[in-house]
Amino acid sequence: MWGVKANDDSDVDGIMVYYPIYGGRQDQYLQSVVSPHKDVEGLNHQFLFNLYHNIRFINPTTLRPPPASHLPTPLPSKSTGATPSSDPTPPGTVKSVLPCTPLAIVKVLEHIGVYNSLLAYGDRARGKVITVINRSEVVGRPLAALLANDGARVLSVDVDSIVEFSKRPTTSSTPTSKYNPHHVSTPLDPSFKLEDCLKISDVVISAVPVASYKVPTSALKDGCICVNVAGEKNFEADVRERASIYVPSVGVMTIAMLQRNLLRLCTYRDVEKQLSESPF
């Protein structure tokens, strides 16, 4: 099979598959066939496991977390108020690869100010309500988890249900964080509709691959941010009458994140080589 051959080919640094191909479980199987050491899309089960469990830093050889790395980064202490100015990568670890399109959307949101850089790393989307339309396994679901793990309240809308993704307050007495280690998903009452999501959402992200689908401008919260991810335009022509910022496409940023993931995989390989050559 092509995937297995490319996995073993030393001349191949990364593999990209343009999903969907078959859809459903067959595509999930293909995602797992691609070696995580060459998966530039970040859809291998190991990377998805890391994402859904909010595992940000991993051993570059095993691609799994060192002990206790699944715990969230501690929030600033009340006594000092210190906030990390950058991503605090622990010694001996590297960042886990993330799915390229969800990561591209996060980078867009960071650039336009949805993320608050004054807050602690891992909590910078706190206070934001974000609606994500289409809970696909390639974009919608991992995006909802990624945003929720960064502190947002995410309303994930699909054809038959609306599910809330968030880091709920924990009942644990552990002082390291006031959030769960990772997001939890909670199905909302069927009476809660898309319009209810839109009127409270600071950000609306739509990824419906159907030309006829349009998010109604009249239902949007005034001043919200709208991001179109689908190849088709999911927002009406007058979207800017309600939206303070409208992002019509994230394709270029997705390509940049593919390149970023490729460089990250090369870093894994280089670090692994250094470790294997080390006398200790």
Automatic annotation (TrEMBL):
Signal sequence extent: none
Domain Tetrahydrofolate dehydrogenase/cyclohydrolase NAD(P)-binding: 99-159
Pfam families: THF_DHG_CYH_C
Compositionally biased intervals (Pro residues): 66-75
Compositional bias (Polar residues): 77-86
Domain of life of the organism encoding this protein: Eukaryota
GO cellular component assignments: cytosol
Transmembrane segments: none
GO MF annotations, alphabetized: methylenetetrahydrofolate dehydrogenase (NAD+) activity; methylenetetrahydrofolate dehydrogenase (NADP+) activity
Organism: Naematelia encephala
Disordered as annotated region, ranges: 66-94
Biological processes annotated in GO: purine nucleobase biosynthetic process
Protein name: Tetrahydrofolate dehydrogenase/cyclohydrolase NAD(P)-binding domain-containing protein
SUPFAM superfamilies per the UniProt record, alphabetical: Aminoacid dehydrogenase-like, N-terminal domain, NAD(P)-binding Rossmann-fold domains
